[in-house]
Structures are given as structure tokens and as C-alpha cells.
Amino acid sequence: MATTQETQKTETPAAAEAETATLDVFRYIPEEDDKPHTETYEIETFEGMTVLDALIKIRDEQDPSLTVRHSCRMARCGSDALYINGTQRLACNTQVSELKQPIDVEPLPRFDVIRDLVVEMSEFYNRMESVEPWFQPDHEPETGDEYLQSPENRKNIDTVLDCIWCAACTSSCSPAASDSDFPGPAALAKAYRFYKDEREGEETRRRRLEMLENSHGIYRCHTQFNCTEVCPKNISPTEAIMEMSRDAIKEKLRFWR
Q: What is the pLDDT at residue 109?
């Protein structure tokens, strides 16, 4: 007996519509442009996409002229600090999905623009160097060839050891913008790291504090905590500066020495 075989057709569901993000990106080449301008890009996103991922995707797939500085992509090198939606952030550590769109991406404020999102960092590095951010013991090791540090002392400086020199804090600092002689929060936090290190000795510690206690130093801080709010490593330069200021005042009051 003849049989009729019917083929059932199944419909494939329509592919889910890809999610997109819109970025308004600062563009400026000083040698070519009269003034900065903004260019808008729309890209397809993926789960876990960071702002740096988005910028690299734009550069690689849409506009190879876009310039952005980056390196490790692990929030350790500090090279990709930008001004994202009105706040200093690391582009590699900022999720696109958590931001309001369109996403405004600009270079760090208060720095000269070299090109697009890349800023000149020489002045920042000079400020960091001005506080002598290197180990300077004023005595020989008490035992053997090592300078020993107590766990308690190490704990005191743990809070500032993670600085990655991204300059986000300095970009947010009003005194740093108006006073070129002010080292800025990143440099003063680095100074605090060595000032509090017991291995340098009391003489060096006192010299470091004297170097910083002036109208362009620790007393220039407005204690607004802007630097603390934007630090991607949860460092509080303001608290470090305030502690050094208190110590400096105490030193002045020690008239019995």
C-alpha cells in the first residue's frame, strides 16, 4: 500500500537583534584642527565590553584615525585614563553596559591634548619626580644586608602602594590646575608612601616633611576629596595629605626638642 510521507517544516526563530552602543568621542589634532569636535559612532556590543574595547573596535573597524593610548588592558598600567561621562575613569575598567548613552569620551581635563584622546603627561611625571619617590635610607641595615620592615608599618602604607600613575586624581584636582608648583594628589600620595616607611629613618622622614610643608605643598590641598572619588585603585590621597599636614603642625609645636 502506498504511503504518503509528509515533511514537517520548522521555522527558525529570528536571530536576536544585536545590542548596540553610541559613543560621542572627542576628536582633535592640534596641527590640523582649528578647534576640537565630537564624532559619533555606533557599534555592536558584547557581554563584558569595556569602553576601551569599544574604542579599539571603532579604531579597527570604522575609523583608523582615532587615537587612544592603552597598554595592559588590566587596570594596572594606568595609560588609558579618560574622562568618561563626566568622570575620570580607566577605560579598560569601565563597562559599557553600566553607562548612560550616548557615552561621552574625552581626554583627561587639564592636560594638553597631543591628539584625540591622548594627552601630554610630561608635567605629571615631573610633579611625581619632584617629591623624590625613591627609597632613601639614612642608616645601614641593622642586621645583615636587608632593611627590615615591620608588618604594622607595611600595613600603614598599603593604602597608597597601588598607585598606577594614571593621573586621574591630578586631573580632578583644582589646586593642581591653578598652581604649577603644587605636586598634586598622586605625587603627594607617593611622598606619603616613603615618608611613612620606617626603613628610611627619622632624619630622612623629617627632611621629606620639611620639603612638602609649604604653601605650594601639603597646605595647598583644599581637602575636597575629588581625587579620592575618582581613584580607580581606591586610594585616598586627601587622607594621606591631611595626615602629613597634621604631622607637620605637631612638629612645629614640639618646642621641647
A: 97
Q: Give the integer Cα–Cα distance in Å for 185 and 189.
A: 6
Identify the band that residue 17 occupies on the pLDDT scale cut at 50, 70 and 90.
confident
185-195 helix and 122-130 helix, angle to the nearest 10 degrees:
30
The pLDDT assigned to 257 comes to 54
Q: Would you say 104 and 85 are in contact if contact means Cβ atoms under 8 Å apart?
A: yes
Please answer whether residues 95 and 50 qualify as being in contact, where contact means their C-beta atoms are separated by less than 8 angstroms. yes
Give per-residue pLDDT as tens, 113-134.
999 999 999 999 999 999 999 9
Q: Class assignment of domain 122-253?
A: mainly alpha
For residue 156, CA distances in Å to 170, 194, 229 come to: 23, 11, 20
Per residue in 136-186, pLDDT (tens digit) is 988 888 778 888 899 999 998 998 999 999 999 999 999 999 999 999 999
* Digit-coded pLDDT (tens) for 22-42: 999 999 999 999 999 999 999
> Which residues make up the CATH 3.10.20.30 domain(s) of the chain?
20-119
Would the pLDDT of 86 be above 70? yes
Please name the fold of domain 20-119: Ubiquitin-like (UB roll) (3.10.20)
Bridge-partner residues for 119, per DSSP? 113
Bridge partners (DSSP) listed for residue 115: 118
